[in-house]
Amino acid sequence: MEKEEKESVVKEAFQKWLGLFLVIIAAFAVGFVVMNAATIWNVVMDLFGVLKPVVYGCIIAYLLNPLMKVYQDLLTRLMERGKKSLSDKRRGMVRGCSITLALLSGILIIIVLCWMIIPQIVESLTSLVENLPDAVNHYYTMLNEEIRNNDLLADKFQDAALNLTKYFDEIMNKELLPWMQKELLPNVNTVAVKFANGIMGFLNVLYNLFIGIIVAIYILAGKEKFAAQAKKIAYAVFRKNHADTVIHYVRITDSMFSGFIIGKILDSTIIGLICFLCMTVLSMPYAVLISVIVGVTNIIPVFGPYLGAIPSAFLILLVSPVQALYFIILIIVLQQIDGNLIGPAILGESTGLSAFWVLFAILLFGGIWGLVGMIVGVPLFAVIYRIVGDFAAWRLREKQLREETVCYENLKSVTVGEDDSVEYIHFTRQELEQKKEEKRKKRKEIGNRFHGIVKMVSRKGQSKKSEERLDERGDDRKQ
Known about the structure:
Layout: H1 2-35, H2 37-50, H3 52-79, H4 88-149, H5 151-184, H6 188-221, H7 223-237, H8 240-281, H9 287-297, H10 304-317, H11 321-347, H12 355-369, H13 371-398, E1 411-416, E2 422-426, H14 429-478
Antiparallel strand pairs: 1-2
């Protein structure tokens, strides 16, 4: 008995001191991270650079996974005809064939798109380069005739041209030429090295993509095992209920990201095809080039259509201002169709965010991560929004309060009775009208005060002007 008591005392002391020891280690770790944040960040970025093929492989595997599932289901049905179930060997064959078909389909889609689009884009760019001088000369001639026929416009344009010439002359003499003499010419070797590094960086990206494809094959082949290992670690590190919560929200994240990104790619492809057909029917120039721009930028929610429409409209404007106007109308109609018909049909309620939160997510993550943040910001913020909403609902359930947002609109107070009954007291219509009337009176009072201050200032200004006029008249009389 004494031995057991001693062991229990030692165990309690060990647990107590272990907790304190862990707290001290955590404090030192946080201090070390704060003091060496820049070094740690550089190490993280170097590690990310080394693991780029793995990152590319994860992205490729994530995009090919839906295709692989389709092929796997189809091949499984074909091979299960007349049999109850497949053996492990046949399942492995089905998985390998599914991965191969998914990878070949992805590569084939890219090759077909490049084969169809790149020649048209080259042709459009060649036509643009050939027609650009004529278009500029046409607009220059038209502007020159307008200036000649309008004296007032000629004077204004002459002053603007003089100021512009003076401005460019100052830039050339004070900024551009000194920069070329001091920075550009002595550093030609540096520029050449940077150009060579750019080419090597491009080749490195191709190499990482090639390795990433191999990594994606391994990920797709063993995705169930990787998922099982991740769940095993989650249950080993966290408590059971915490691990269940983590796995639950990982599934929600996967559902939101896959539904949004794949749906957005399909939606943008349909919009690009519709734009190409409409531009071809309306005989607009650069149909393929502009349709590709519109389709690619449409992946970005909210701002994407405008980012694609502005340069596209400018390209058409160089050929025909009337067709540029038609193109703008076409884009507006296309976005209305996309926002009200195509987008909801494909994406559905994949995010559950209102228009305000979509705009907020794009601005927030776009400012942090740029173009990538604009694309992934909406599903990422949707996950955060879901977690916050579930946490609020859980806390309300613990307090035995209602979860519906409607119950808190125009809420005045919440009272809990002696029998734990909850009553939600809302502002009445009369109270709301009274508050609006009080706000209106306050705004009117502030407006009257501001108007009085403006009047007083104007009177002081008029009195000063009258005094100055009297002084001037007195001086004239003296003279």
